[in-house]
């Protein structure tokens, strides 16, 4: 109100609510369980109700126990909430009367010390990640550094399982290590499975844990929204994939000691030119075994299906509250881009990879289109913010291809040919530089031209006051909402709200809460 | 007025005036010459008047000739100026009613295409560099790239004279190259001069052309103010100095082939550890011969004195219009910083360099303080913008020192000691990172806090309307000012204006001009 008096509209202060959040999560989980139990109890058309409850035999006890616990938690939540007034964190969501006003506050440094007063674009309300509001600039910075170091350490240490897997493709080494297995390994089927398919399978098992790990690291990094966390995790997974699948497989092929050469830039093209063509067959198998399988499993959603089936069978969780899945960008984007990298780097060395990739991309286009339109629910608006990642990665692929080609021409004693590649690399880098200037500012903030145009349209919009009312309540911490489920006997009479209507009810009552 | 209606104040469009500028410069030069001649003519107390004019013998002819030429040029200027209305360039100086309003327009991207509409902070009026206003984004970008490539090429090619100079310190090589000189080179005095002093002298002669060259390159780079050009040239000279004085001398000491090792990062500390201590005596001599001499010549201003004397003797330019010199930051800042680098890198290898440096810095403090206060006229307000350069350079010096120390400990077979240096480097880089976050935003723009405070002070200031009037006229192209010297006989009657009063007169008449 001091610096932006004409455009300031409202604000909601963030409160330290980590303790409360745990309680509310507990309460929600219990409430869900209770609702399920009650549903089974009250609706006689359920099939497995009697049998299932008969199996446990103490239905009433369980209900009572749950209700009692829920009541205790709800009381705790109310007590905690009443103490919230003092737990204000030096952070707030500030809303402005116009987009232009918000852009001014966002782009100009507010205080004299740039670390005291940081402005960031507010994420969509359901996209907010709350833990990092209570944290000072220095702690955020330190967590970022720690996450960065941890990410690099994981990326590099992951080489160990990759190297072991790659050892499998060289059966002769394995034979000399385990002489007892020699007779088994000599079988054609076994050796084909071990050298052709097993390495990829083991790699895939290891790799399936990586996106979750990177999301965890990114969430430690001080971002205030899930979308930012996912974007950052996407970049992490991307470099992880390049390093651990491309470089590790290429260079550790027969000799891990070659990594040493990576520290000598002059040797780099030669080493790559020697190692990359040798791994062409591995990557072709990789495209078929990993790429095609993934596309297929994406369509059939085998893992969620299996999980749901198991859950239904053992837990009795009938899937009434089945949530539509959201697309895990941090898994899918790096995967698709990596196949692009394979295509770009191998198309001159082993053109046979191209038809496989073409099938992958065609299938991918059809299937992902279907998934995005009819299966996944968008959790947040990406606003095309993955574009810079894709662009940088494509430029990187091209430059890597040039380096490999320079190395190959060098090996074939064609210095003029490798010299002629240089202008291509320079042109690529200049194109990249131009794109950075021309297109990347779009991701920093909207131009005044658009803001003013939209603001003027809004001025004539009769619904604006309604929108402002909504804005006041949009950014309240979900943990501070008045708790709706008391768990006491009278709550049995209250209608069971679906999660949607519950959310809207929350919004309407939140203003009383914050007083 | 469309996007910033409440804060827009006025603007002045830039016009394509390069042709006019040449004419005006010609006219000004002629006018100055004419004034000098007339002064000599009209003031009988001048000493050398008769003798000087007697020497040439056609005083009246010269005056008439000058006046005629000046009159022609003035007519041409007026004709050119009348055609100016159509030569508008898509660039303008826009002034705003408040600092806050100007900051908004500066920091927010205006148009949808970020390359069409670029906002930059306007330099001080006399600091404007006009040529790059007529240039599109792409041409500016291309010139920047070209300047960058040229600068790198010059920096690297300069190694050749440096290598030749360094050859002088190894007399044995010289002897074998020129056997005829052997008897002369064997003389103690000659060999001492050649090995000790001559290399530094030759280096200095070559180096004295570099700042001017870098200023030229920077002025091609698309900056719109002299201060930016000087800042950019300062950075260029800095890296030039590091590369061509420090690295070239250290590594080419006895073997230029060592440069090859620079491409292998692993070998880097070892090569430096071997080469740096070997050049300690050269750099000690450098501090004395180059540093101390520079400080002294700075005090006595020998070159301007000599230049002035020669000018006065031959040209008869009596120095009535002697301009106070401005400090050439792009020469002085890199020089002082380089001695800092020498101190940081050599203080553990050759501590004997420290007293010499101490004397240099003490003398420098006293002398530069005197020069800045009483000799130099500040041409523009630097606003501390050289601080980031100094900071980055200091961090670079520290890291370089760490690398050398790691190499030396490695050579002495003390792996633990060199390992213990690593945390120091990491801490230095973290400190640098923190400073970047904490202090560098200050150079991007002023915070809202300060802007609003100053704006509120201004609102109560009764002189603001006067300031706004001045603002309207401040950014007019000097080439478009009505020409004051007609050179026709009647102009003899007009009082001869000093350059100050002439400037203010220009300002008062400029408004008629632009109609």
TrEMBL record, chains A, B:
Q: Which GO terms describe its cellular component?
A: plasma membrane
One Pfam family cited in the UniProt record for this chain: PHM7_cyt
The CSC1/OSCA1-like 7TM region domain is annotated at: 144-409
**Native organism:** Pisum sativum
UniProt keyword terms in alphabetical order: Calcium, Ion channel, Ion transport, Membrane, Transmembrane, Transmembrane helix, Transport
User: What is this protein identified as?
Assistant: CSC1-like protein hyp1, variant 2
Query: Where are the membrane-spanning stretches?
Result: 145-164, 184-217, 237-257, 277-295, 336-368, 390-409, 416-434
Which Gene Ontology terms cover its molecular function?
calcium-activated cation channel activity
Regions of biased composition (Polar residues) lie at: 500-515
Domain CSC1/OSCA1-like cytosolic, residue spans: 2-131
Spans annotated as Disordered? 482-515
């Amino acid at each position: 109100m001091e610096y932006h008096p004409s455009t300031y509209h409202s604000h909601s202060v963030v409160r330290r609510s980590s303790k409360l959040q745990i309680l509310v999560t507990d309460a929600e989980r219990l409430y869900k369980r209770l609702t399920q139990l009650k549903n089974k109890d009250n609706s006689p058309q359920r099939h497995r109700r009697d049998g299932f409850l008969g199996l446990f035999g103490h239905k009433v006890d369980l209900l009572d126990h749950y209700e009692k616990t829920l009541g205790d938690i709800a009381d705790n939540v109310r007590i905690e909430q009443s103490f919230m007034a003092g737990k204000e964190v030096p952070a707030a969501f500030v809303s402005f009367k116009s987009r232009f006003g918000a852009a001014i506050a966002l782009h100009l440094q507010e205080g004299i010390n740039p670390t005291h007063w940081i402005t960031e674009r507010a994420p969509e309300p359901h996209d907010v990640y709350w833990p990092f509001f209570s944290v000072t600039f220095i702690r955020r910075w330190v967590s970022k550094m720690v996450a960065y170091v941890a990410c690099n350490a994981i990326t590099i240490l992951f080489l160990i399982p990759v190297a072991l897997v790659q050892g499998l493709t060289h059966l002769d080494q394995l034979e000399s290590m385990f002489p007892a297995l020699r007779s088994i390994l000599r079988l054609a089927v076994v050796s084909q499975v071990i050298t052709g398919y097993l390495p990829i399978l083991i790699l895939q098992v290891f790799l399936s844990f990586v996106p979750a790990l990177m999301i965890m690291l990114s969430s430690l990094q001080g971002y205030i929204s899930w979308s930012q966390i996912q974007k950052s995790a996407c970049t992490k997974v991307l470099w992880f994939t390049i390093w651990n699948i491309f470089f590790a497989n290429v260079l550790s092929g027969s000799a891990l000691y070659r990594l040493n050469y990576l520290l000598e830039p002059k040797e780099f093209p030669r080493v790559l030119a020697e190692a990359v063509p040798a791994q062409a067959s591995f990557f072709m198998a990789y495209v078929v075994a990993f790429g095609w399988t993934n596309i297929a499993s994406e369509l059939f959603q085998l893992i969620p299906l299996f999980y749901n089936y198991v859950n239904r069978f053992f837990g009795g969780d009938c899937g009434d509250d089945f949530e539509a899945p959201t697309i895990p960008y941090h898994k899918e984007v790096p995967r698709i881009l990596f196949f692009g990298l394979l295509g770009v780097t191998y198309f001159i060395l082993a053109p046979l990879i191209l038809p496989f990739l073409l099938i992958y991309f065609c299938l991918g286009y059809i299937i992902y289109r279907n998934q995005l339109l009819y299966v996944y629910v968008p959790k947040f608006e990406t606003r095309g913010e993955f574009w810079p990642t894709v662009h940088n990665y494509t430029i990187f692929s091209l430059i890597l291809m040039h380096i490999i080609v320079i190395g190959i021409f060098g090996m074939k004693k064609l210095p003029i040919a490798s010299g002629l590649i240089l202008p291509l690399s320079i042109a690529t880098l200049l194109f990249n530089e131009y794109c950075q200037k021309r297109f990347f500012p779009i991701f920093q903030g909207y131009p005044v031209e658009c803001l003013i145009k939209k603001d003027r349209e809004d001025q004539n919009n009769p619904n604006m006051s309604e929108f402002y009312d909504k804005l006041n309540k949009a950014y309240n911490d979900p943990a501070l909402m008045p708790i709706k489920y008391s768990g006491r006997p009278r709550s049995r009479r209250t209608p069971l709200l679906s999660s949607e209507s519950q959310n809207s009810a929350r919004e309407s009552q939140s203003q009383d809460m914050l007083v």
